[in-house]
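Notes from the 1:1 (GR / supervisor)

We went over the backlog. Supervisor wanted to see one worked example end to end before approving the batch request, so GR pasted a single chain during the call. The sequence is below; no edits were made to it. Supervisor asked that the structure be written out right there so they could see what the output format looks like.
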Amino acid sequence: MPGNPNPTLVALHRFGLGARPGDWPRVSADPRGFVLGQLNGPPHAFGQDLPASDEATRRRRAAEIIREEERKRPTPAPEATMSRDPQPPVEVQLFRAEAVAVFQQLANTDRPLVERLALFWANHFTVSAAKGPAVRAIAGAFTREAIRPHVLGRFADMLLAVEQHPAMLIYLDNNQSFGPNSRAGLNSERGLNENLARETLELHTLGVDGGYTQEDVVALARIYTGWTFNAPDVDALFGGRFTFAPVRHEPGPQSLLGRTYPMDGVAQGRAALADLARHPATARFIARKLARHFVADEPPPTLVARLEAAFTASDGDLLVVTRALIEAPEAWTTPLAKLRSPIEFMAGLMRATGRTPEAPMALLNGLRLMGQPLWEAPGPNGWPDTTAAWLAPEAMAARLDIAAQLGRRAGGVDPLDVTDQIFGPAVSRDTRETVARAESRAQGLAILFMSPEFQRR
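Structure output shown during the call:
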């Protein structure tokens, strides 16, 4: 039977993003204390120079109007267009600026656990820029506004912030949902869109086996009617912000999971979400997802039960739940067998080499090649969270190519020195000897970055 994993590797990989040069001696003195210490204080805010989602929405719409007007004009002569230096659309510029902020944070943070939590919850509450320009412009702001402030707060607060955020309302089409018997619904003959309600129950709270019915989906969809955002075209000051539209709201009480919610405007939905946040099925679903993400594809049942109990007893206090995860014996004895996702692998490369990119395109392209384009999950259920999902031959070939490219760019660095800096005595003899036998420093770095120690968490 293999022994327990090295506790410093657990701290740096299972609960972090990999070591930076100099981290090993500092963390190895007290691995568990190092992780627990990251829970002190609020999540680090970044991107203060980036626009809020409502401002980004107004910018995108203003640029879209200009493009629409330009398309109506006569086509200019070829020589006139050749002299221009076209800029990417505003939504692309905003997306790239948000990406730079995220990459810099992943590379430099002293609280990598908090960044891992932000990645986890942003995937749990997925929005995808593939939906179109409206979401692409605010996908990064969505994480900054609705996810990051709450990763060590209350699940109920995060849930409400997510479901009311314009990015989620657009992504799951709730801005197109009308109560069939509402004034606007009767006048326009438009009806319910169930997407947000279904995913709230199936993916955000109770889970697919959480005991809800199709009638519950319809009831929550009715409760959600009127949850939309101000259109920049008609509100130049507050366009892009969440708003409640009473004329779209389905009148009357609604019965959800056996409880009746009286007609009370936007408060009807808030009350329903508060109850969903503390539902026993939600506690089980979240506990299992956290345990699977951090510890094992098939997490120990004792760990899941421990997290479920912490969630329930604390009324969804994610600081309490995260502390329970860190203090769980299973988190420190289960082998490091999960494969880093592409964005975790990219973060590990940046941290190991001390390189912080200013231009995002190489990293964005690399993530796409590895099968995880930033903020573009293939569906509302987000990216898969199992090792097998990232082991496709083409994805692993892309990792090798990226490792080789970075090895060439950092070829002046001694790979054995990097090995000792980020793995200390925990590196296997096979890995160290293979790195030492490399034909060049660049090749040695590539071998190190593809080693089991670097790939697993």
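Supervisor's comment: The two ends are 19 Å apart (CA to CA).
Batch request approved.
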